[in-house]
Amino acid sequence: MAESQDSNAGGAVSNGNGAQPTLNIMAQYVKDLSFESPGAPNSLRGRDKAPSININVNVNANPLSENDFDVNLTLTAKANVDKEVLFNVELVYGGVFRIAGFPKEHVLPVLFIECPRLLFPFARQIVAEATRNGGFPPLMLDPIDFAQMFQRKLAEDQAKAKVQMS
Q1: I want to staple 9 with a disulfide (CB 3.0 to 4.6 A). Which of 5, 59, 86, 132 is the partner?
Q2: Which has the closest alpha carbon to 36: 79, 3, 71, 5?
Q3: Is pLDDT at 11 greater than 50 in this prediction?
């Protein structure tokens, strides 16, 4: 039996005028997708040791209007065995988000934590399919802690600001 929940149960904060904060995905899209396997077909043969895989993640956000933002999640993965590149995949996956009713101090965390968290499962699937279609086992990226990424970026920006002031 389902229980009813208070409409403010998720800890949502009202902005004072009675409007509840909203986050809507207006569109999702592949902005750029690249898969390279420069050594194919030799790179597809079986190996005694697992490749080293270097994965990079980046998030960018740009305003489109007062409440609409374009958020891009960039995932790159490069697999090497010794100096041989097995594959290199890069995906820029974007979403257009409508954010309304949030206090100004909450907008950046929503853009850089919640929006990429919503985009990630779709981007992860695209990377897995690209590597599988390239002849390799699907690369299943581990979940990403976007909150930790955001906090680390804030700390780096604050450290840079302190260095520039002195």
Answers
A1: 5
A2: 79
A3: no
